[in-house]
Amino acid sequence: MTAAGSGALGRITSFLAAAGATRAAYMALRKRPPGGAVRWERTNHAGRTVQLHAGLATATGTALAAAGAPGLSARTRAATALAVLAAGGCGVYDDMCGAGDPRRGFRAHLSALRDGEVTSGAVKLFGIGAAGLAAGALLKPRPADKLLAGVVIAGSAHLVNLLDVRPGRAAGAVLALGAPGLLRRGPAGPLSAAPLGAVAAVAADDLGERTMLGDAGAHALGAALGLAVVTGNGRRGLAAHAAGLIAVAAAGDRISRAAAAL
Taking the complete model, does pTM exceed 0.70, yes or no? Predict the structure, then answer.
């Protein structure tokens, strides 16, 4: 399909594909959760028991729709699948293995690493960072742009996760941050539509406190948004986004508290 063919039709196709795949995965996980239902249960901020099914479902739906979106080059498809699946996979690992770990933030996990302990948060930090850089290397030709692209992809994944502190916060952020990308030409349009479709499929259950995105969903959705930014911007745009995301990461605790207070 040509660039023109990946316009409105490409965005609609990507949105619907993500929504359909996410909803199908979500219902399948609810019916037969791997390892049993208890493994996927968590207690939310209000003391209610919720399920983590939306996380894996949105990661799956986003990856399938984004990588299969019309009008993308083979390198863009490969970069998309790599970044979204790695972010979602690292998130699942942290959801499953780091549930009882009270440590949060880069400093805590890096301090543990210096003491010889490899936390699930450290695995997530380096795993998503490496995948972002690898995806950036596929998408951009010059070394500086490859680095900036990696920062944007990993930083976007981290940003959405920072906002996943109350029902609907991360989902609302994905919708708000992804909507402007629908106006961009080329691959940025369908790449923006994929996380929007995925999160729309589970938003009602998230707001209803029946499920939550968790690290898996938040990181995968954020990585997809980062990919859309990378494909739609040159060096100046990448540098501006990277600077903003680094500032957000530095103020991570404050960002999370502000989101929780909304």
Answer: yes
